[in-house]
From TrEMBL:
It is a multi-pass membrane protein. Keywords: Membrane, Transmembrane, Transmembrane helix. Belongs to the CLPTM1 family. One of its GO terms (cellular component) is membrane. The lineage of its organism: Eukaryota, Viridiplantae, Streptophyta, Embryophyta, Tracheophyta. It is found in: Membrane. Its main location: membrane. This is Transmembrane CLPTM1 family protein. Residues 183-194, 563-575 have a biased composition (Basic and acidic residues). It holds the Pfam family CLPTM1. The keyword Cell cycle does not apply. Signal peptide: none annotated. The chain crosses the membrane at residues 299-319, 340-355, 418-437, 443-469.
Amino acid sequence: MSQPAAAAVAAQPQGQAAAGRQGGGLGQSLAGIVRMAVFWYFASKFFGPKRAPTEPGLLMSNLFQKGEPMDMWMYLSENDKFSDFGNEDALIWHETNIPYAVWTPTSTRTHTLTYYPTEALKHNGSLYAHVYFSRSGYPVDPTDPEYEQKSAFGRTHPIVAYLRKSKAGHKKSLLGDSDESEEKLPPKENKESEDKEEGPVEYISYWKPNVTINLVDDFTRYYPTVFFNEFWLLRDKLTALNKTVKELTLNLEVSPISMTKWQLFLQIEQSFQVHRSYGSMLEGEADELKRVFLEGNPYLLGLTMIVSLFHSLFDFLAFKNDIQFWNKNKSMEGLSAKSVVLNFICQLIIFLYLLDNDTSWMILASSGVGVCIEFWKIGKAMHVEIDRSGKIPMLRFRDRESYAQNKTKEYDALAMKYLTYVLLVLMAGFAIYSLKYDKHKSWYSWILSSLTSCVYMFGFIMMCPQLFINYKLKSVAHMPWRQMTYKFLNTIIDDLFAFVIKMPWLHRLSVFRDDVIFLIYLYQRWVYPVDKKRVNEFGFGGEDEPAAPQTLEGAAAAQQIEAKAETSTEDKKTK
């Protein structure tokens, strides 16, 4: 029907969840739709073609009047052209006295039937719905003697959709287990697809269980506009056609629709197409956005949009202060240099994982910029030099004096030593589990997916060395607190999303693990007093700050004292 019943969202696989978290989220998608709608309005308003005034007698008008009763016939055929109006088997639905463009209890008609597919339809065949309308009492068959061309019209709509086969069907168990997925290709074809990734694109035929026919409340056209509304027909509602399908359910509906709502649906679909062509929206993201409107509470949806705007603002402020901190930082005393290097490695793993999973270029660009920024931080935390002594130039990293000449390096190495043991055990355990129970495209994909999953699950371990350094130094004056404050606010927002939005439990767990780390940071800030002798993030100590400017009276008094001193000195020289 026009709004199909919402289904529960299944938990995504870990690989998909990792890639999905790199997208911009619900707020960015909504902002993109609004931006496209506003742009279309002003473009059509100010830059559209100027139409010459038309005489009133030449204006196009609808042949059907508002509220005029109409009859409807719907036929099913495997051909896109239809002329067999006398075939009773092809006629699946007939309605009479449907009022045109008015909203009354009789304006909406529904019908449900069971269709038994033919062998041709099971093997990528086609099926079309031929819908015809006429004035009440008039036939739609052109061969009928009472047929009038101005009193009948019709439209054709495909019932079968052809969608690209997901690449997930090419994944396999690397250990050669027998329980393969149902979409696995024959062994010979599988081998060819592995040897050559870029083969012919495969498509699968899907049955559309809902067909909604809307008569648009538009009287500027010659005939009434028939709109086949598939806006709320999500992909997971479609049924894959194959030889095992015995019967199919078809839900039919005919109802009126306002011109504003009709144009809104068209503009949103056009916006989705533009985003997909630019790579800013992946296949399936439009359905997830529609699902939010179908399943979500409208008040909760409005709150989510507002909170998403704040989340984007705090992300920008945290990024801005992070760049400012490392750009002005002159001392690595109290900061973990090894954590900076590990953050770069984690960001690089995520980038390679997204590249292996055919992510959109906008997400790849965003992740690539993050990799470059993390490498730039290494240059601020350590001395990076190019070693040209060998045949191949190599990068050489050397600790800064402010990091190596105090206890910071010792504490950092001690913390990383024990945490590395824990991290390696967790990574090895998860990699073995993924190899045994999950399916992958190749060994390279298995390594990347295992490393990426460990980054998301155990990434909080990378923050623990800084906690250990703070504990040993009994100070937090070196921390970038402004940046961490914005990140903590974003963590609180993520906690809200974890309760109101369906997401994989692994991602939900990662949200609350960050809360624990930040709460420990706040506890350390409260416990350890401010040490004015210790340098801050900009390399200055509290005792190094310049003195406050003197008042005018104080300056005058100082000048008088200085003048008296000079006079006394000159008198002594004269004597």
